[in-house]
Amino acid sequence: MYVVRRFRAAVDAAGLKDAVLYTCKHTAASRMIRAGIDIVTVSELIGHSDPKMTLRYCHSSLETKQEAVDTLSRIYLQIPKPATVTAGLPKMSEQSLSSESLN
Length: 103
What we know:
This protein is mainly alpha-helical. Helices cover 60% and strands 0% of the residues. The chain has one domain. It has helices at 2-14, 21-34, 39-45, 51-54, 62-77, 94-97, 99-102. It is elongated, with a radius of gyration of 22 Å. It starts with a helix and ends with a helix.
């Protein structure tokens, strides 16, 4: 009960409404899933015995759907992935990437 009382005091002090400890569990699970952590791992981390229970934390968004379509397009149309930010990383020349330089 100590944890529940402390949590309630923090919620009240923050001026939040309708927040319970379960809210933290739900938020953590939802964020892990959005971050790409597989459903089985999330299920185990939050204490569910069956990943089916964890599916309630899977909320699809327009952004997630667009990422899925983009990924499928790259797979089937063989479109290269968008460039990633490499600021601060040394540039590698083609010579440094050749098989001769690996020997």
